[in-house]
Amino acid sequence: MKKIEAIIREEKLENVKNVVEENGYFGMTVSEVSGRGRQKGLSLQWRVGEYRVDFLPKLKVEVVVLDKDVSKILHAIVSSARTGESGDGKIFVYSVDNAVRIRTGEDGDNAI
Amino acid sequence: MAVNAADTAWLLISAALVMLMTPGVALFYGGMVRRKSVLSTMMMSFAALAIVGLIWVLYGYSLSFAPGIAGIIGGLDWVGLRQVGQEPSAVYASTVPHLAFMIFQAMFAIITVALITGAVVERIKFSAILVFSALWLTVVYCPVAHWVWGSGGWLGELGALDFAGGTVVHIAAGVSALALAKLLGPRKCFVNREPMEPHNIPMVALGAGLLWFGWFGFNAGSALISGGLAASAFVATNISAAAAAFTWMILSWRQRRPSLLGIATGAVAGLGAITPAAGFVPPLAGIPIGIVAAVICYYCMLFRMRRGIDESLDVWAVHGMGGTWGALATGIFASAAINSAGADGLLLGNALQLARQVAGIAAVWAFAFGGTWILGRLVDITIGLRVGETEETVGLDISQHGERAYGGALR
């Protein structure tokens, strides 16, 4: 079991949600995060003049998948979240020890 | 005639009340879009305050109200407020300074332009809506205002009644909104059926509240005096708003649950519908007018959605159809006993008045739709109406205005 944690552009959420679902995973957790990377922030206007915001709003999408599905889900997320500009985000993959479905108590792969 | 202090005070306060309705529209619309475009949505209303406020005193008031050409459009005699001063006008609101009447009318022109912007949110180019607003005010609003309210205007001469702008404001804005939305095409997310949850419903409710409050100036101020007629229009306005809000709440409850978004929309529908009638009908006619307005607007909104038209915030369903019903209802419920400048309606045996109302409705529908279509095409082929695809996905706040509504979360 692996957890795929993808930091993506806010406007790409629908695309990512759709491709993950097409690959057989309905469940996911999404949170609003702020971060910085090579995009180096954004220039916004004040009443007069400009200021830079260097923490940009992104979305963090977390999906836990079976080991055999990791590469296809990664591929799906990368292709659906990419624009080719800096600021497209990053994906991290973690090992997951176990998972438990609270309602039934079942655990392991069945709980995903 | 001499200036009457009470009338002047009421008209100036009413002008200020109507002014507040435009920020009300900004909140009402702003809460209904997604948060990446709330500023751009509100900006369009504030831009109307800025550009229409200028055009109106430069030439808009003259084109609407100055002595005209064949009842079609006002002349240029009052350009730059020439002959518009502290003395009352000879033809309009003869007990208040001409300037007071002029600025009261300015607020109507501003909010009419602001209303249209609800149709085009989240995808129109800001420069395009600015140019369109200026053109639309000149080519559509000014003539229509002259037809209905201008001295010698042909619809007024025909006897079509419009107390405070059912045709001039609400039909004109609603029908134009529909035409412009058709030209502009739907939002990408609308086509893809992505969830488009309103981002701040309390903001919508606050906007609706400001509209309801300001509408007392809109309708009761349109009496142009501070007497019995103003009180009658004020009461009719509140009754219709309440009846429509209540009705919409029930309709939404029947479908699922009574929603705040629904009751707020219902209030606005009732206010739009009573607008042409407010000072011509007995106040209690506000009950049937409000109830029917809510039913009509509710089902028009469902119809619009089923047809897949992205007239995003339902300016046509609420204002266009509410105004149309209100203009008809004026021909049904009007009573010369309420306002001697008015007429009796169908219920008092004068079917002719209803026919006159239909003529007014048809003329304004056709002219507003056609005029908007031509102007919209013109803007589209010159500077382009719509933002690029990436700008639309990122949201208009960042792409058009370089601002975001809810930044600064980390510091």
Structure explained in plain terms:
The complex is a heterodimer of chains A (112) and B (411). Chain A is of the alpha+beta class and 112 residues long. Chain A is built from two helices and six strands. In chain A, the strands form two sheets. Chain A has a four-stranded antiparallel beta sheet with strand order 2-5-1-6, covered by helices on one side. Chain A has a two-stranded antiparallel ribbon with strand order 3-4. In chain A, strand 3 (42-45) and strand 4 form a beta hairpin. Chain A is elongated and about 60 Å long. The model of chain A has no long low-confidence stretch (mean pLDDT 89). Chain B is mainly α and 411 residues long. Chain B has helices spanning 5-30, 38-65, 98-116, 126-149, 154-158, 166-184, 188-191, 201-220, 228-255, 260-274, 286-306, 315-333, 351-382, 389-394, 396-401; strands at residues 68-69, 73-74. Chain B has a two-stranded antiparallel ribbon. In chain B, a hairpin with a 3-residue loop joins strand 1 (68-69) and strand 2 (73-74). The longest helix of chain B is centred in the C-terminal third of the chain and has 32 residues, at 351-382. The mean pLDDT of chain B is 94. Classes of the chains: A alpha+beta (112), B mainly alpha (411).
